[in-house]
Amino acid sequence: MVVTIGMLLIVISLFVSSFFWDFSWDGQWYHQSAIYNITDGWNPIKEPIRKFNKNNDLSIVHFPKGSWYFAASTFSAFGFFEAGKALNFIVLFVLAFFSYDVSRKFNLNKLHSILVAVLLVFNPVIWSEIATYMVDQLLCMYLTIYLLALFSLIKKYNFYHLLIGIMAVIGLINVKFTGGVFIFVFSSFGFLYIFFKKREILLKYIKIHIISAVLGVLVFGFNPYISNFTERGNPLYPILGSKEYPSRLEQGFDGNEKHETPKNMQKRAFPIRFFYAHFGTPSNAPYDGKKNAELTIPFVSTFSSWDAYRFHETRVAGFGPFFSGLLLLSLLYLLYYIKRNKEKRLLVLCIYGALISSLLISKHFWWARFAPQIWFFLIAPLILGLFFDKNKKLKHTLIFATIVNAIIVIYIHTAWEFKNTLKFQKELSLIKQENKEIQVGKTWFKKSIEERFKVYDIKYTFVSRKKLKQKHIKKLSNVPKGYPGTLMYNNK
Predict the structure, then answer these.
(1) Who has the most CB within 10 Å: 97, 128, 194, 227?
(2) pTM of the shown model
(3) pLDDT tens, residue by residue, 363-399
(4) Start-to-end C-alpha separation, the chain
(5) What burial class does residue 304 get, using C-beta atoms within 10 Å of its C-beta: 0-12 exposed, 13-18 middle, 19+ buried?
(6) Calpha distance 185→143 (Å, rounded)
(7) What is d(CA 363, CA 373) in angstroms, rounded to the nearest whole number?
(8) What's the CA gap between 36 and 232, in Å, rounded?
(9) DSSP assignment of 150-206, as one string?
(10) CA-to-CA distance for 174 and 64, rounded, in angstroms?
(11) What are the phi and psi torsion angles at 53 (to 5°)?
Protein backbone atom coordinates (compact mmCIF):
# COMPACT_ATOMS: atom_id res chain seq x y z
CA MET A 1 0.00 0.00 0.00
CA VAL A 2 2.78 2.42 0.97
CA VAL A 3 4.70 1.63 -2.23
CA THR A 4 1.57 2.15 -4.32
CA ILE A 5 0.88 5.54 -2.73
CA GLY A 6 4.52 6.52 -3.22
CA MET A 7 4.44 5.62 -6.91
CA LEU A 8 1.15 7.49 -7.34
CA LEU A 9 2.62 10.63 -5.77
CA ILE A 10 5.65 10.41 -8.08
CA VAL A 11 3.35 10.16 -11.10
CA ILE A 12 1.33 13.14 -9.84
CA SER A 13 4.56 15.09 -9.36
CA LEU A 14 5.65 14.34 -12.92
CA PHE A 15 2.32 15.40 -14.41
CA VAL A 16 1.95 18.60 -12.38
CA SER A 17 5.53 19.73 -12.95
CA SER A 18 5.21 18.97 -16.68
CA PHE A 19 2.23 21.30 -16.98
CA PHE A 20 3.89 24.38 -15.48
CA TRP A 21 6.65 26.10 -17.43
CA ASP A 22 9.56 27.73 -15.63
CA PHE A 23 9.37 31.52 -16.02
CA SER A 24 11.77 32.38 -13.21
CA TRP A 25 14.69 34.67 -13.99
CA ASP A 26 17.43 32.49 -12.50
CA GLY A 27 15.77 29.36 -13.83
CA GLN A 28 15.97 30.61 -17.41
CA TRP A 29 19.33 32.31 -16.91
CA TYR A 30 21.47 29.37 -15.76
CA HIS A 31 19.51 26.46 -14.18
CA GLN A 32 17.83 25.43 -17.43
CA SER A 33 21.02 25.94 -19.41
CA ALA A 34 22.93 23.67 -17.01
CA ILE A 35 20.29 20.94 -17.25
CA TYR A 36 20.23 21.06 -21.05
CA ASN A 37 24.02 20.82 -21.21
CA ILE A 38 24.16 17.87 -18.82
CA THR A 39 21.48 16.15 -20.89
CA ASP A 40 23.50 16.86 -24.03
CA GLY A 41 26.50 15.00 -22.63
CA TRP A 42 28.42 17.31 -20.29
CA ASN A 43 29.85 15.32 -17.37
CA PRO A 44 30.73 17.73 -14.53
CA ILE A 45 32.84 15.06 -12.80
CA LYS A 46 35.08 14.32 -15.78
CA GLU A 47 35.04 17.87 -17.17
CA PRO A 48 34.63 20.29 -14.23
CA ILE A 49 35.63 23.40 -16.21
CA ARG A 50 33.86 24.09 -19.49
CA LYS A 51 32.78 27.13 -21.50
CA PHE A 52 29.07 27.58 -22.20
CA ASN A 53 27.71 31.09 -22.43
CA LYS A 54 29.82 33.93 -21.09
CA ASN A 55 26.93 35.48 -19.15
CA ASN A 56 26.27 32.41 -16.98
CA ASP A 57 29.36 30.17 -17.13
CA LEU A 58 30.38 30.94 -13.56
CA SER A 59 27.10 29.70 -12.09
CA ILE A 60 26.82 26.59 -14.26
CA VAL A 61 30.39 25.41 -13.71
CA HIS A 62 30.84 26.15 -10.00
CA PHE A 63 27.44 25.93 -8.26
CA PRO A 64 25.98 22.78 -6.60
CA LYS A 65 24.32 20.48 -9.12
CA GLY A 66 22.14 18.06 -7.15
CA SER A 67 18.79 19.18 -8.58
CA TRP A 68 20.28 19.44 -12.08
CA TYR A 69 21.27 15.78 -12.09
CA PHE A 70 17.71 14.76 -11.22
CA ALA A 71 16.21 17.07 -13.84
CA ALA A 72 18.61 15.91 -16.57
CA SER A 73 17.84 12.26 -15.77
CA THR A 74 14.09 12.90 -15.83
CA PHE A 75 14.32 14.84 -19.08
CA SER A 76 16.33 12.03 -20.67
CA ALA A 77 13.87 9.39 -19.43
CA PHE A 78 10.60 11.07 -20.38
CA GLY A 79 11.60 13.51 -23.10
CA PHE A 80 9.76 16.46 -21.59
CA PHE A 81 11.95 19.16 -20.08
CA GLU A 82 9.57 20.60 -17.48
CA ALA A 83 9.14 17.14 -15.89
CA GLY A 84 12.51 17.66 -14.21
CA LYS A 85 10.81 19.95 -11.70
CA ALA A 86 9.02 16.88 -10.28
CA LEU A 87 11.72 16.83 -7.60
CA ASN A 88 10.09 19.91 -6.03
CA PHE A 89 6.75 18.16 -5.63
CA ILE A 90 8.26 14.84 -4.52
CA VAL A 91 10.20 16.58 -1.73
CA LEU A 92 7.05 18.55 -0.85
CA PHE A 93 5.14 15.30 -0.33
CA VAL A 94 8.02 13.93 1.75
CA LEU A 95 7.97 17.05 3.93
CA ALA A 96 4.20 16.84 4.43
CA PHE A 97 4.13 13.17 5.43
CA PHE A 98 7.37 13.31 7.41
CA SER A 99 6.25 16.30 9.48
CA TYR A 100 2.99 14.48 10.25
CA ASP A 101 4.85 11.30 11.23
CA VAL A 102 7.32 13.10 13.50
CA SER A 103 4.47 15.02 15.16
CA ARG A 104 2.66 11.77 15.90
CA LYS A 105 5.90 10.44 17.39
CA PHE A 106 5.67 13.33 19.88
CA ASN A 107 2.14 12.14 20.75
CA LEU A 108 0.29 14.97 19.03
CA ASN A 109 -3.25 14.06 18.00
CA LYS A 110 -4.07 13.72 14.30
CA LEU A 111 -5.54 17.20 13.91
CA HIS A 112 -2.60 18.95 15.52
CA SER A 113 -0.16 16.81 13.53
CA ILE A 114 -1.88 17.94 10.34
CA LEU A 115 -1.65 21.56 11.49
CA VAL A 116 2.10 21.18 12.05
CA ALA A 117 2.45 19.76 8.53
CA VAL A 118 0.40 22.60 7.04
CA LEU A 119 2.38 25.30 8.85
CA LEU A 120 5.65 23.84 7.58
CA VAL A 121 4.49 23.07 4.04
CA PHE A 122 2.79 26.46 3.58
CA ASN A 123 6.06 28.40 3.72
CA PRO A 124 5.48 31.00 0.93
CA VAL A 125 9.02 30.57 -0.43
CA ILE A 126 8.19 26.97 -1.33
CA TRP A 127 5.09 27.87 -3.31
CA SER A 128 6.60 30.90 -5.00
CA GLU A 129 9.26 28.73 -6.62
CA ILE A 130 7.78 25.22 -6.75
CA ALA A 131 6.97 25.46 -10.47
CA THR A 132 10.51 26.57 -11.33
CA TYR A 133 14.06 25.29 -11.55
CA MET A 134 15.15 27.72 -8.85
CA VAL A 135 16.48 25.99 -5.73
CA ASP A 136 15.50 28.14 -2.74
CA GLN A 137 12.32 26.09 -2.32
CA LEU A 138 14.37 22.88 -2.19
CA LEU A 139 16.76 24.48 0.29
CA CYS A 140 13.76 25.37 2.44
CA MET A 141 12.21 21.89 2.31
CA TYR A 142 15.48 20.01 2.88
CA LEU A 143 16.29 22.24 5.85
CA THR A 144 12.84 21.69 7.36
CA ILE A 145 13.11 17.91 6.90
CA TYR A 146 16.56 17.96 8.51
CA LEU A 147 15.25 19.86 11.53
CA LEU A 148 12.34 17.43 11.89
CA ALA A 149 14.81 14.52 11.81
CA LEU A 150 16.87 16.31 14.44
CA PHE A 151 13.89 16.57 16.79
CA SER A 152 13.00 12.94 16.07
CA LEU A 153 16.52 11.83 17.03
CA ILE A 154 16.34 13.79 20.29
CA LYS A 155 12.97 12.24 21.12
CA LYS A 156 13.79 8.62 20.25
CA TYR A 157 16.02 6.89 17.72
CA ASN A 158 14.20 5.81 14.55
CA PHE A 159 16.23 4.34 11.69
CA TYR A 160 13.90 5.54 8.93
CA HIS A 161 13.71 9.07 10.32
CA LEU A 162 17.50 9.07 10.60
CA LEU A 163 17.88 7.91 6.99
CA ILE A 164 15.53 10.65 5.78
CA GLY A 165 17.50 13.19 7.80
CA ILE A 166 20.81 12.09 6.25
CA MET A 167 19.30 12.33 2.76
CA ALA A 168 18.06 15.83 3.61
CA VAL A 169 21.59 16.86 4.63
CA ILE A 170 22.98 15.50 1.35
CA GLY A 171 20.26 17.39 -0.50
CA LEU A 172 20.98 20.62 1.38
CA ILE A 173 24.70 20.48 0.68
CA ASN A 174 24.13 19.81 -3.00
CA VAL A 175 21.34 22.24 -3.80
CA LYS A 176 22.97 25.50 -2.70
CA PHE A 177 26.18 26.59 -0.98
CA THR A 178 24.24 28.09 1.92
CA GLY A 179 22.74 24.65 2.61
CA GLY A 180 25.96 23.42 4.16
CA VAL A 181 26.34 26.63 6.15
CA PHE A 182 22.82 26.30 7.53
CA ILE A 183 23.52 22.69 8.49
CA PHE A 184 26.57 23.83 10.47
CA VAL A 185 24.64 26.56 12.29
CA PHE A 186 21.57 24.51 13.21
CA SER A 187 23.54 21.36 14.08
CA SER A 188 25.78 23.45 16.39
CA PHE A 189 22.78 24.63 18.39
CA GLY A 190 21.42 21.08 18.31
CA PHE A 191 24.74 20.00 19.81
CA LEU A 192 24.35 22.52 22.63
CA TYR A 193 20.82 21.35 23.43
CA ILE A 194 21.83 17.68 23.45
CA PHE A 195 24.92 18.45 25.55
CA PHE A 196 22.75 19.89 28.32
CA LYS A 197 19.61 17.78 27.95
CA LYS A 198 20.45 14.39 26.45
CA ARG A 199 24.18 13.86 26.66
CA GLU A 200 23.90 10.07 26.23
CA ILE A 201 23.26 10.47 22.47
CA LEU A 202 25.94 13.12 21.93
CA LEU A 203 28.51 10.76 20.37
CA LYS A 204 25.89 9.26 18.05
CA TYR A 205 24.82 12.78 17.09
CA ILE A 206 28.37 13.73 16.12
CA LYS A 207 28.94 10.50 14.15
CA ILE A 208 25.71 10.95 12.18
CA HIS A 209 26.68 14.47 11.15
CA ILE A 210 30.20 13.46 10.18
CA ILE A 211 28.88 10.63 7.99
CA SER A 212 26.29 12.95 6.43
CA ALA A 213 28.89 15.64 5.71
CA VAL A 214 31.32 13.16 4.15
CA LEU A 215 28.60 11.73 1.90
CA GLY A 216 27.29 15.19 1.02
CA VAL A 217 30.66 16.78 0.19
CA LEU A 218 33.07 14.03 -0.85
CA VAL A 219 30.68 11.63 -2.60
CA PHE A 220 27.54 13.36 -3.89
CA GLY A 221 29.16 16.79 -3.86
CA PHE A 222 32.47 15.95 -5.56
CA ASN A 223 31.48 18.61 -8.07
CA PRO A 224 31.38 21.40 -7.00
CA TYR A 225 33.23 21.12 -3.68
CA ILE A 226 36.27 19.02 -4.58
CA SER A 227 36.34 20.30 -8.17
CA ASN A 228 36.22 23.93 -7.04
CA PHE A 229 39.01 23.31 -4.54
CA THR A 230 41.31 21.64 -7.06
CA GLU A 231 40.51 24.01 -9.92
CA ARG A 232 39.97 27.33 -8.14
CA GLY A 233 41.52 26.91 -4.69
CA ASN A 234 38.29 27.19 -2.69
CA PRO A 235 35.38 24.70 -2.43
CA LEU A 236 32.90 27.60 -2.23
CA TYR A 237 34.14 29.47 -5.30
CA PRO A 238 32.90 31.95 -6.60
CA ILE A 239 31.19 32.93 -3.31
CA LEU A 240 34.63 32.72 -1.68
CA GLY A 241 37.87 32.84 -3.61
CA SER A 242 41.59 32.19 -3.47
CA LYS A 243 44.67 34.30 -4.16
CA GLU A 244 44.78 33.20 -7.80
CA TYR A 245 41.01 33.21 -8.28
CA PRO A 246 39.41 35.93 -6.10
CA SER A 247 35.67 35.85 -5.45
CA ARG A 248 33.26 38.24 -7.13
CA LEU A 249 33.06 40.25 -3.90
CA GLU A 250 36.84 40.46 -3.70
CA GLN A 251 36.78 41.80 -7.25
CA GLY A 252 34.45 44.56 -6.09
CA PHE A 253 31.23 43.21 -7.60
CA ASP A 254 28.13 42.50 -5.52
CA GLY A 255 25.28 41.78 -7.92
CA ASN A 256 22.75 41.23 -5.16
CA GLU A 257 23.46 44.64 -3.69
CA LYS A 258 23.57 46.47 -7.02
CA HIS A 259 20.71 44.82 -8.89
CA GLU A 260 18.47 43.00 -6.39
CA THR A 261 18.17 45.26 -3.34
CA PRO A 262 15.65 48.14 -3.08
CA LYS A 263 17.50 51.44 -3.37
CA ASN A 264 16.66 52.66 0.13
CA MET A 265 17.97 49.41 1.62
CA GLN A 266 21.35 49.49 -0.09
CA LYS A 267 24.39 50.11 2.09
CA ARG A 268 22.20 49.90 5.21
CA ALA A 269 22.75 47.78 8.31
CA PHE A 270 21.14 44.35 8.32
CA PRO A 271 18.46 45.16 10.97
CA ILE A 272 17.24 48.07 8.82
CA ARG A 273 17.15 45.88 5.71
CA PHE A 274 15.25 43.20 7.61
CA PHE A 275 12.74 45.71 8.97
CA TYR A 276 12.00 47.18 5.56
CA ALA A 277 11.76 43.73 3.95
CA HIS A 278 9.28 42.28 6.45
CA PHE A 279 7.37 45.32 7.69
CA GLY A 280 6.76 46.81 4.29
CA THR A 281 4.04 46.88 1.64
CA PRO A 282 4.26 43.85 -0.69
CA SER A 283 6.43 44.80 -3.66
CA ASN A 284 9.31 43.68 -5.80
CA ALA A 285 11.37 46.86 -5.62
CA PRO A 286 13.75 47.77 -7.23
CA TYR A 287 11.69 46.31 -10.11
CA ASP A 288 8.07 46.54 -11.21
CA GLY A 289 8.14 50.34 -11.35
CA LYS A 290 9.33 50.77 -7.77
CA LYS A 291 12.76 51.78 -6.55
CA ASN A 292 12.28 51.72 -2.79
CA ALA A 293 10.72 49.48 -0.16
CA GLU A 294 7.81 51.19 1.62
CA LEU A 295 6.96 50.59 5.26
CA THR A 296 3.39 49.97 6.35
CA ILE A 297 1.50 49.41 9.59
CA PRO A 298 1.17 45.71 10.49
CA PHE A 299 -2.10 44.19 9.21
CA VAL A 300 -2.63 47.20 6.91
CA SER A 301 -2.37 46.06 3.30
CA THR A 302 -4.06 46.89 0.01
CA PHE A 303 -5.37 44.26 -2.41
CA SER A 304 -3.55 45.94 -5.29
CA SER A 305 -0.16 45.42 -3.63
CA TRP A 306 -0.75 41.67 -3.48
CA ASP A 307 -0.08 41.46 -7.19
CA ALA A 308 3.61 41.45 -6.18
CA TYR A 309 3.20 37.78 -5.33
CA ARG A 310 3.18 36.89 -9.02
CA PHE A 311 6.96 37.17 -8.82
CA HIS A 312 8.99 34.12 -7.84
CA GLU A 313 11.12 35.99 -5.34
CA THR A 314 9.04 38.85 -3.91
CA ARG A 315 11.45 41.07 -2.05
CA VAL A 316 9.26 43.06 0.34
CA ALA A 317 6.71 41.18 2.48
CA GLY A 318 7.77 37.96 0.80
CA PHE A 319 6.16 35.83 3.51
CA GLY A 320 2.71 37.31 3.01
CA PRO A 321 0.94 40.65 3.46
CA PHE A 322 0.19 40.06 7.15
CA PHE A 323 3.47 38.43 8.14
CA SER A 324 4.71 41.43 10.14
CA GLY A 325 1.62 41.65 12.33
CA LEU A 326 1.44 37.90 12.82
CA LEU A 327 5.14 37.83 13.70
CA LEU A 328 4.62 40.37 16.48
CA LEU A 329 1.65 38.45 17.87
CA SER A 330 3.57 35.19 17.62
CA LEU A 331 6.52 36.61 19.56
CA LEU A 332 4.15 37.88 22.24
CA TYR A 333 2.64 34.41 22.37
CA LEU A 334 6.18 33.04 22.74
CA LEU A 335 6.71 35.17 25.86
CA TYR A 336 3.41 33.86 27.23
CA TYR A 337 4.51 30.30 26.38
CA ILE A 338 7.92 30.67 28.09
CA LYS A 339 6.30 32.04 31.23
CA ARG A 340 4.00 29.01 31.43
CA ASN A 341 6.66 26.46 30.38
CA LYS A 342 9.89 27.50 32.07
CA GLU A 343 11.46 24.08 31.49
CA LYS A 344 11.38 24.77 27.72
CA ARG A 345 13.53 27.91 27.90
CA LEU A 346 16.69 26.15 26.71
CA LEU A 347 14.79 24.69 23.75
CA VAL A 348 13.45 28.13 22.78
CA LEU A 349 16.90 29.69 23.27
CA CYS A 350 18.51 27.13 20.95
CA ILE A 351 15.79 27.46 18.30
CA TYR A 352 15.94 31.24 18.13
CA GLY A 353 19.70 31.32 18.64
CA ALA A 354 20.07 29.14 15.54
CA LEU A 355 17.58 31.20 13.54
CA ILE A 356 19.20 34.54 14.39
CA SER A 357 22.73 33.21 13.84
CA SER A 358 21.77 31.82 10.42
CA LEU A 359 20.64 35.28 9.32
CA LEU A 360 23.83 37.03 10.42
CA ILE A 361 25.92 35.11 7.87
CA SER A 362 25.12 37.52 5.05
CA LYS A 363 23.76 41.04 4.73
CA HIS A 364 21.52 39.70 1.95
CA PHE A 365 19.60 37.33 4.22
CA TRP A 366 16.81 39.87 4.62
CA TRP A 367 15.41 38.41 1.39
CA ALA A 368 12.84 35.65 1.85
CA ARG A 369 14.29 33.48 -0.93
CA PHE A 370 17.79 33.56 0.57
CA ALA A 371 16.62 32.87 4.13
CA PRO A 372 13.36 30.87 4.01
CA GLN A 373 13.89 29.94 7.67
CA ILE A 374 12.60 33.41 8.59
CA TRP A 375 9.18 31.75 8.35
CA PHE A 376 10.13 29.72 11.46
CA PHE A 377 10.24 32.91 13.56
CA LEU A 378 6.47 33.04 13.08
CA ILE A 379 5.47 29.38 13.25
CA ALA A 380 7.87 28.04 15.91
CA PRO A 381 5.84 29.44 18.87
CA LEU A 382 2.62 28.14 17.29
CA ILE A 383 4.02 24.64 16.88
CA LEU A 384 5.44 24.67 20.41
CA GLY A 385 2.00 25.73 21.61
CA LEU A 386 0.41 22.70 19.95
CA PHE A 387 2.71 20.46 21.97
CA PHE A 388 2.76 22.16 25.36
CA ASP A 389 -0.06 24.74 25.71
CA LYS A 390 -3.68 23.91 26.55
CA ASN A 391 -5.04 27.34 25.56
CA LYS A 392 -6.68 26.11 22.34
CA LYS A 393 -8.54 29.29 21.38
CA LEU A 394 -5.46 31.53 21.34
CA LYS A 395 -3.11 29.24 19.45
CA HIS A 396 -5.76 28.05 16.99
CA THR A 397 -6.66 31.65 16.12
CA LEU A 398 -3.03 32.51 15.39
CA ILE A 399 -2.58 29.33 13.37
CA PHE A 400 -5.70 30.02 11.31
CA ALA A 401 -4.55 33.58 10.56
CA THR A 402 -1.08 32.33 9.60
CA ILE A 403 -2.52 29.77 7.19
CA VAL A 404 -4.78 32.40 5.60
CA ASN A 405 -1.78 34.71 5.16
CA ALA A 406 0.12 31.92 3.38
CA ILE A 407 -2.85 30.96 1.21
CA ILE A 408 -2.99 34.52 -0.16
CA VAL A 409 0.54 34.13 -1.53
CA ILE A 410 -0.03 30.57 -2.71
CA TYR A 411 -3.26 31.38 -4.56
CA ILE A 412 -2.00 34.55 -6.27
CA HIS A 413 1.24 32.99 -7.42
CA THR A 414 -0.20 29.63 -8.49
CA ALA A 415 -2.95 31.38 -10.46
CA TRP A 416 -0.33 33.49 -12.23
CA GLU A 417 1.79 30.41 -13.05
CA PHE A 418 -1.28 28.64 -14.49
CA LYS A 419 -2.40 31.59 -16.63
CA ASN A 420 1.07 32.52 -17.84
CA THR A 421 1.89 28.95 -18.85
CA LEU A 422 -1.19 28.85 -21.07
CA LYS A 423 -0.51 32.36 -22.38
CA PHE A 424 3.11 31.64 -23.29
CA GLN A 425 2.24 28.37 -25.00
CA LYS A 426 -0.42 30.18 -27.02
CA GLU A 427 2.09 32.85 -28.05
CA LEU A 428 4.52 30.22 -29.31
CA SER A 429 1.71 28.37 -31.12
CA LEU A 430 0.71 31.54 -32.97
CA ILE A 431 4.30 32.13 -34.09
CA LYS A 432 4.49 28.55 -35.32
CA GLN A 433 1.22 28.93 -37.26
CA GLU A 434 2.57 31.95 -39.10
CA ASN A 435 5.42 29.72 -40.29
CA LYS A 436 7.79 32.67 -40.77
CA GLU A 437 11.31 33.13 -39.52
CA ILE A 438 11.47 35.69 -36.73
CA GLN A 439 14.19 38.00 -35.48
CA VAL A 440 14.74 37.75 -31.74
CA GLY A 441 16.47 40.34 -29.60
CA LYS A 442 19.55 39.01 -27.85
CA THR A 443 18.69 37.75 -24.40
CA TRP A 444 20.20 36.50 -21.15
CA PHE A 445 18.17 33.31 -21.65
CA LYS A 446 19.66 32.17 -24.97
CA LYS A 447 19.82 28.41 -24.30
CA SER A 448 16.39 28.29 -22.67
CA ILE A 449 14.73 30.17 -25.54
CA GLU A 450 16.52 28.13 -28.19
CA GLU A 451 15.22 24.90 -26.71
CA ARG A 452 11.67 26.20 -26.39
CA PHE A 453 11.67 27.39 -29.99
CA LYS A 454 12.96 23.96 -30.99
CA VAL A 455 9.96 22.28 -29.35
CA TYR A 456 7.60 24.43 -31.43
CA ASP A 457 9.76 24.20 -34.58
CA ILE A 458 10.08 27.98 -34.74
CA LYS A 459 12.69 29.40 -37.12
CA TYR A 460 14.61 32.35 -35.70
CA THR A 461 17.79 34.37 -35.72
CA PHE A 462 19.21 36.37 -32.83
CA VAL A 463 19.96 40.02 -33.54
CA SER A 464 20.87 43.00 -31.41
CA ARG A 465 17.88 44.85 -30.01
CA LYS A 466 18.91 47.90 -32.02
CA LYS A 467 18.44 45.95 -35.24
CA LEU A 468 14.89 44.89 -34.42
CA LYS A 469 12.27 46.78 -36.41
CA GLN A 470 11.14 49.13 -33.68
CA LYS A 471 7.65 49.72 -35.12
CA HIS A 472 6.77 46.05 -35.24
CA ILE A 473 8.23 44.70 -32.02
CA LYS A 474 6.22 42.06 -30.21
CA LYS A 475 6.83 40.69 -26.73
CA LEU A 476 6.63 37.22 -25.22
CA SER A 477 5.47 36.47 -21.67
CA ASN A 478 8.66 34.65 -20.71
CA VAL A 479 9.16 36.55 -17.42
CA PRO A 480 6.73 38.20 -14.97
CA LYS A 481 5.66 41.65 -16.13
CA GLY A 482 7.85 44.25 -14.46
CA TYR A 483 11.10 42.33 -14.82
CA PRO A 484 13.88 42.93 -17.35
CA GLY A 485 14.45 40.09 -19.80
CA THR A 486 11.15 40.15 -21.69
CA LEU A 487 11.84 38.50 -25.02
CA MET A 488 11.24 40.85 -27.97
CA TYR A 489 10.86 39.74 -31.59
CA ASN A 490 9.41 40.62 -34.98
CA ASN A 491 8.98 38.96 -38.35
CA LYS A 492 12.11 38.96 -40.45
Answers:
(1) 128
(2) 0.96
(3) 999 999 999 999 999 999 999 999 877 777 888 999 9
(4) 57
(5) exposed
(6) 11
(7) 15
(8) 24
(9) HHHHHH---HHHHHHHHHHHHHHHTT-HHHHHHHHHHHHHHHHHHHHH-GGGHHHHH
(10) 5
(11) -135, 125
